[in-house]
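Minutes, project huddle
Topic: does the predicted pose make sense with zinc ion bound?
PN asked that the exact inputs be recorded in the minutes so nobody has to dig through chat later. Recorded below.
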Amino acid sequence: MRTLIRNISQLVAVPPGPVRGPAFSNPPVIDRAALVIEGEKIAWLGREADSPGGQFEHVLDAEGGTVVPGLIDCHTHAVFAGSREDEFVRKIQGASYLEILQAGGGIRSTMRSVRAASVDEIVEESLPRLTRMLGSGTTTVEIKSGYGLSPEDEVKLLLAIREIGRRLPMEIVPTYLAAHTTPPEYEGRPGDYLAAMTDDALLARIIGEGLAEFADVFTERGAFSVDESRRYLEACRRRGLVPKVHAEQLSSSGSTRMGVALGAASVDHLEFITDEDIAALAGSGTIPVLLPGCSFFLGTPPAPARKLIAAGLPVALATDCNPGSSMIESLPLIMSIACTMLKMTPAECLVACTANAAAALRREDRLGAIAVGHQADLLILYVPNVNAWPYRVGVKSVWKVIRKGRVT
Ligand SMILES: [Zn+2]
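Predicted holo structure (tokens), as shared on screen:
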């Protein structure tokens, strides 16, 4: 099947990731453009005046809109049960993240809801959320476990994540985040808990059934130390899971350097990143993923994005969609927040949510770019240029979502 998209006011031809330096800040833009899709892939792009001839089964009129790659949300906890709006209010009234965690709230509250729910119930609760993410332009989404915190309940969450991937026209990337927090039955014994969660038979099942690709850990005071995190990630890596790290979110711990040393695909958060960490990242293939939704949601200082960009790092952005610290489903809203709080331009935000997010998920050869041979995951926006997108904060600017060459 051959499809022509014509009458594009602005085509942002984001190159394959990781994108850094001048290309990060100024991705190629083609005005009055057209694009040809053959099957599931991009076959041609350029000025409409130069469009190739021949027969097209479909012609899509972009009506003067902007065309960009489908968005990639490379860090979420979007599959869970229950809701924590009560905690949202307590935080507004001054309770800190750690205070809520230590009082049995936070992750443990969602853990209780997940443990009490079946796979089907978790799917039914989460499906509308993922459907809305697709509608706001997210064509690929990484989803972490981490609310079951026992072998059977973590597998249950991973099964729910897989089922959602079967029901929606999105690419779902599953991550095993058993090391999210220590559950009550292992109180004070995080090492024993992690040993149980890296049991050979359990990891063999997760890998064997394709239930996870990545392993992630929350390295933080009140969660796991750098040494505990390293042992967990090494055990998961030996079985074939690629490491990721929740690093330097609430304090500086050296978790970024630990992740880089392990060859992590990404280190995520980085609000408290140091110059030493930035230097370590600069010589690595690890992608720094920033999650400004947390800073927005919690009213805390954001990561030093401009410093990372100036160091030539291929910065990615994600929602961190989760019920405690960032109940945000919309990557376009994250782009608006990154513009105002991280001082990133709309074009930089777009690259960070596409090519570099694909690199954080090790999919840059196939996803996240508008290049010949890349998968035709595309968005047609109502707005005439990319700057107008995050500028219109909270407005739905996504008109059509195209995945694998088909309008969803
Ligand atoms: Zn997270």
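Observations noted during the meeting:
- The chain has a mean pLDDT of 96.
- The pocket of zinc ion is lined by residues 75, 77, 246, 320, 322 (CB under 6 Å).
No decisions taken; revisit at the next huddle.
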